[in-house]
Amino acid sequence: MLQNWLLFHVFAIVHKYGTYEPHSSAYEWLDVNDPDNDCLQLPEFDVLNLHDLDKPVVGKLALLIGNQNYDDGRLQLKTPHSDVRELKAALEKLDFKVMSLVDLTKAEMLKAILSFTTFLGRCMYAIFYFGGHGFEGLNPTSGEVETFLVPVDTPYHCSADKCIKLQEDVLDTIQECDTAMNLVIVDTCRTWKIGHQTAITHGRRTKSRRSVNLRSKGNTVFAFSTCSAQEAYETHSEILTDAPQNSVYISCLKKRLGKKEDIPVEQLLKETARDLVSKHSFIQIPTVVTNLIRNCKLTDPVKPDDDDFTRHQVARWANITDLPSYDEFPLSRFSLKPKFVQKFSNVLCMVLFVENNNDFAVRDFKIRAKQLGHGLHVQEESRSCDLAAATNPSAERKYVAQIAIGGLQRLEDGVSELSLPLTMSYHDDREDVPSGITLAPREIPFEIALGKPLFAAASANWDTFISGGYE
User: Fold this and answer.
1) Does residue 4 carry a pLDDT above 50?
2) Selection from 221, 343, 351 nearest residue 291 by Cα
3) How far is CA 428 from each of CA 176, 386, 443, rounded to the nearest angstrom?
4) Tell me, what's the pLDDT at 19?
5) DSSP 110-149
6) CA-CA distance, 345 to 455, in Å (whole number)?
């Protein structure tokens, strides 16, 4: 049964219905439930189950993707990582469970979307966010106008088939879960790209074209950071001098979310659009497109069902949010205490605290990390320093190293466990070194077992995870 559901979930041919036509205003807005709007008819067989409209929300989940470090250096961006981080913090304060991923290839983006949908179901709110490069063009398969999201492995001269289709790959997949609300937030340029191959550059404003096709379940809101055929700006520095840490759109959205306003989601997005336009004088015009029937607020309380399915989903979610746990341990009369934090769902940060318990001082103490393989990358922020002897408690005896392990989504299926190889190096202050002689530092290799932290738990057990199981 579960396998049949999965095959249907991934490969179902879905019925697409309805479009919108952008128009010039402070913000673009289309309510497809307006009886005077005949651009989209809602067929009875495809509308959200009316019995669910008054039921409480049983879960609120969000998938946030920020592509910043593109393989082609000409495509590098500045703010998607910080945008995801800020949006994650704001949504968690509204009781959303958040899966945050950065710098994904096309295959990894598709995998993340499918992973996300395994947690979704009826009476749930789902948010999908993408920040990075994007454009509009023709879907080479359907011939329809599509919004394309650009993965990090896309070349500068890209073709549409190397990108993620917002309608086909994202919304249509999420819609199979019959959620109560789907909020799709896209913070990318929407300039028009003609032909199958094009350079990802700032395009000129062109004639507006239809680019959103809402499936008619009455449960979807699109929030674009800009209107069709228009660019989106990362920071003030592209138009002003004072550059913030977030994109122009996210800087406005996070402030609105931070207010925790008890208002419908459509109104919140309209207020965000007004804030942006009033502050930045029409440099980009946010677009909101909706066919939402239910009165949904991001502040709506969560009342989870007390059933086996819910308990199973809670356990699976805990499996991809687990962090390694360590007690303090000794190594050559040094005390080591690692602590772990989640930077993103695919980036694990370790802060390693070291204290010298020797009766002698050490010079040039440093912790170095080695690369892990498996497509993962390790980045360390540490420096060498001198540590006083334990017999001199008033002097500095402590050292801190910070190490980030990124790319956890690339852990291959079947890898049993990750271990981070490290080397501790130092000079013994008791060493009597003749003038002009340089001694090699003492080096002590060791490892810290990481298990399968965060999203690696899904990647390394993909068959089990995607079928709804967990370990």
Assistant:
1) no
2) 221
3) 64, 10, 11
4) 29
5) HHHHHHHHTT--TTEEEEEEEES-EEEEE-TTT-SEEEEE
6) 6
User: What CA–CA distance (Å, rounded) separates 312 from 237?
Assistant: 47
Distance separating alpha carbons of residues 256 and 90, to the nearest angstrom: 9
Is residue 219 predicted with pLDDT exceeding 70?
Answer: yes
Closest CA to 163 of 80, 228, 70: 70
* Whether the predicted pLDDT of 197 surpasses 90: no
CB 97, CB 60: distance < 8 Å:
yes
- Comparing C-alpha atoms, which of 92, 95, 136, 83 is closest to residue 287? 136
> Cα dist. 342→41, 85, 98, 100 in Å?
44, 11, 12, 10
Ramachandran angles phi, psi of 275, nearest 5°: -60, -45
> Is residue 320 predicted with pLDDT exceeding 70?
yes
Task: Name the residue among 169, 102, 104 with its Cα closest to residue 142.
Answer: 169
Beta strands 157-159 and 197-199, pairing class: antiparallel
User: What are residue 285's phi and psi, to 5 degrees?
Assistant: -115, 105
pLDDT at 193: 67
Cα distance between residue 33 and residue 288, in whole Å: 14
In angstroms, the CA 299 to CA 60 distance is 10
Strand partners, 336: 329, 354
- Residue whose C-alpha is closest to residue 402's, from 360, 471, 343: 343
Which of 214-218, 411-415, 444-448 is predicted least confidently?
214-218
Each residue of 395-439: pLDDT tens digit? 899 999 999 999 999 887 667 788 999 999 998 877 665 666 667
The residue to which tokens 């079947």 are assigned:
414
DSSP 350-372: EEEEEEE-SSS-EEEEEEEE---
Q: Which residues contact 109 (CB under 8 A, 6 or more apart)?
A: 65, 149, 151, 164, 169
Q: Write down the pLDDT at residue 432.
A: 63
Rg (CA), the chain: 25
pLDDT above 50 for 40: no
| Cα–Cα distance for residue pair 183/173, rounded to 1 Å | 13
DSSP 370-402: ----TT-EEEEE---EEE--TT-TTS--EEEEE
42 alpha carbon, distance to own chain's centre = 32
Token pair 């402590």 in the structure block, residue: 398
User: Cα–Cα distance between 17 and 12 in angstroms, integer?
Assistant: 16
Longest dimension (CA), the chain: 92
Looking up tokens 């687990």 gives: 322
